[in-house]
Design brief:
The chain has 110 residues and is mainly alpha-helical. It is built from 6 helices and no strands. Helix 2 packs antiparallel against helix 3 and helix 3 packs across helix 4.
């Protein structure tokens, strides 16, 4: 079983992959914003503060938002738990990443 740290490292590495994909295709940022808007109308009140923070970051623009998405900090780790970017990878991209991940567990390391 994976530790919380390993799961957090994997999430950070996935978000780095997603950030690269968004930088190549900035239209994906709008897709993430639509996902966020959808979630904000439907999730529990406990999740709203994180979603509100993502909305605020998105309002600051792509660079500010992606900087937080790939930041290696406790706060960013917590925000990634409710990331609107998670659905931007294709199943093929996600499976390829997950297949390679155990072979390089330090992938998220600096």
């Amino acid at each position: 079983m994976r530790t919380h740290q390993e799961l957090d490292d994997r999430s950070l590495a996935l978000h780095r992959l997603i950030a690269d994909k968004i930088r190549r295709d900035p239209a994906l940022f709008d897709k993430a914003r639509a996902t966020l808007d959808h979630w904000r109308q439907r999730v529990s009140i406990r999740t709203q503060p994180c979603l509100d923070e993502w909305a605020h970051l998105m309002d600051q623009g792509l660079d500010a938002c992606l900087a937080m998405a790939i930041e290696d900090s406790e706060h960013a780790t917590a925000l990634r738990q409710s990331s609107p970017f998670s659905g931007l990878l294709s199943n093929q991209d996600r499976f390829a990443f997950l297949k390679a991940w155990p072979k390089s567990p330090n992938h998220a390391a600096h």
